Amino acid sequence: MTKPLTKDDYRPDDVTVHRDPARLNRVIRALRNAGRNVALVPTMGALHAGHRQLIREAQVMQNTVVVVSIFVNPLQFGPNEDLAKYPRQFESDVDICRAERAGIVFAPSVEDMYPEGAQVTVHPGPLGDELEGAVRPGHFEGVLTVVSKLFNIVQPTYAVFGQKDYQQLQLIHKMARDLNFPLDVVGVPTVREHDGLALSSRNAYLTPEQRQHAVTLSAALTAGAHVSSQGADAVLKAAHDVLAQTPEIEVDYLELRGVDLGPAPENGDARLLVAARVGSTRLIDNIAVLLGESDEKGE
Prior knowledge:
9 helices, three-stranded antiparallel beta sheet, alpha/beta, Pantoate--beta-alanine Ligase, Chain: A,domain 2
């Protein structure tokens, strides 16, 4: 028999932690019936200033309860990736959510999200096999599957994602459109350290020396953006030249694409994306560029 809801299922003056998807779904339905909007911020935990910014952006939306999900999704990790060592710091994550005045933390178990015998997944389409998908086969199938499950459980009005994972953001936009999820997907600009390094939970793996090398990624993107008025070839050459100055970096790809990750236009908005390994740590980054125009812009 289902237990009745109590005041502890949602406390506006504090963060409430839920682990059971069905119970959270009932709380969300009650909030929606009371006229509240719901903003979902999906994370894998190890929260940092970038996640804080996502929560703050979610709070700006009118009459909104912010739900932060914390779930290290095994379906998006390959057999030789860092699932086992991915940073987990649940108590401090909850403290951050409390400090940022998120209303609810959803922290399900793997068994809750993928019951025994679960087989259905979400196929990302052709874009899922490019860029990150070419290096990490099956990654975006795992991402879209867990995000679709979160959308169904939380039933958000808004879902907030960072632009650092730009390909992921574009695929989630496509999934929401193609599968008729009734919500708005919101992209938030990348949060960076003072020297330009994009914030990432995986930055914690870097040694001090590797941390210095990692800055080369954002420096290469910035160099490319600064010459965007000269066209695509100049953008890629400038970025490659900067990356070549740090041989300790192993580049997986550096590509210039359209904003939808199709072919880059001759003139207009585009996206410059990079992925590389610094030591054993794999990092990604991207920047907006305006090709063939005198005004340069970036993140």
